[in-house]
Design a protein that fits this description.
The protein is α+β, with helices and mostly antiparallel strands and 439 residues long. The protein contains 18 helices and 10 strands. It has a 5-stranded mixed sheet with strand order 7-4-8-10-9, sandwiched between helices. It has a 3-stranded antiparallel sheet with strand order 2-1-3. Strands 5-6 form a two-stranded antiparallel ribbon.
Length: 439
Amino acid sequence: MQRMTYWYKSSKASHTHLPIDNQQLAYCQDCHPVRKSVVNTQGFYKPQPNKNINKPAPRLTDLSLLDKLNAYLDRDTKHKKWTKNKLIASITLASLSVIGISNFAFSGPEPEAYSTVMATKTLTLASVAGDSTFFSTDGFQHGFGYDIARSYANELGVTLLVKNFDNEVEALHAVSTGEADMALTTASTQLIEKNDVTAINISCGFDSSLTQNGLNPRTSWSFRSNQDQLAVQASHFLCQNGQLINTANIANFYDQTLLKDDYNRKHFEKVMANNLPLYLASFQEQAENYDHDWQLLVAMGYQESQLDANAVSPTGVRGLMMLTNNTAEAMGVSNRVDPYQSIGGGARYLEQLKERFSDIPNPDRIWFALASYNMGPNAIAKIQDKLSLAGKDPNSWANVYSYMLDNATSNSRYVQCMHYVTSIRSYLETLKSQTNLLT
């Protein structure tokens, strides 16, 4: 394959789109692979070689990596939901910056945004809450775009500060005026151009997991300038090989399709309408007793028993929160089918698990506690030990989740645990965003 960078140039010099057919990867000395832009290319000029590259961008350097990624995609597990062909993708962004992507030469003083971020040790992110960006309720911030941005902030060694705006125009305006360092939105290319900012497109040819997981393929990071080191380093960060897989796993965890089909959605709504009123006061009181979000307890109860106080599993766990005999005894529950006691036992146990992971900040702390509630804290501790031996951060939920994905074919409990935590996250987000379900 001829190694050269091809580019399209739009009427605005700050935007360009590298042509890739059918999501195939192009490998060249001067660029990393990108997917053909989804935006309208009308008026773009004929592709031509870019001969003025001063510094190459990060790239997938050979076809062996593509083979590895495809093999990663094709691996199946014992549960169809976790088939790897859903996983590999990075953020699919709205627009591609000519200089920010094709030419990483940087000269002169550092742009103000990068200097400010490093001086204040704070990365200020303007965003609009949504399925693909972030959720922020009761101080509990999480979400697909949020988790990627948090990883980037960690890479820079700074703290992520999210400013929530009512709409994308306001979020992008905050970047252009310097109120925020970058924006996380699903804005159209036209809106990005209108606000005179640049948005990075780093799909690297693997963007299918966004759409297959119900995430918006226009999710983007916007910056004031494509010459800003903040944008340059963001491009390097998003397209490095390890981050490609990490982003794919995060996309899979934030699957938004669970309640999209009619049957699951209607069943969820029916249970919330018919069963929740019977136990609402108990959920709220026990949540207050043990310092929990009561809607998190409701989401757990729905996953455990469909809010059925008399539920019994084949393994002998019983009640609304499906407590084992041993757990019930340890939590002081004398009657597992008593809704108030069951909810209280589950809330107390969750509190103990959260305390066990007190050195891990939210949202990861919540996911660790839920995984331990399902599989047992010792099982999670063993995964953490293996991650430590491999030189990986054992307190990263993304790492634990990736480990379970990698080993799901040999341990069906991992499949169950991933489904458990992902489902509760989805139910919680639905309860938070659709308050009519609780009235």
